[in-house]
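Give me structure tokens for this 99-residue protein.
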Amino acid sequence: MPTYDYVCEGCEHAFELFQSIKEDAKKKCPECGKQKLRRLIGPGAAIVFKGSGFYKTDYRSDSYKKAAAADKTGATASSSESSKSSDSTKSKEKTAKKE
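Here you go.
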């Protein structure tokens, strides 16, 4: 249920009211009792994620997830290959130094 802002055009009393969307707008001011109450148009409310456990990647599309997984497996394979080649280069250098 949303919160609506109201202002009285008679006494300029402003307040917020928590009411159902289906409920009609109020007309009578609670301060002065005149029928000059007007509902204000507000900016609306945004979805707010508070607390831990919400990540920007939680709601990604399936195509994005597949592409990211492919990139990750490709990067893992290339990094393991480069580490193997660097290990063999290091062992060759050690052998050359010993001689």
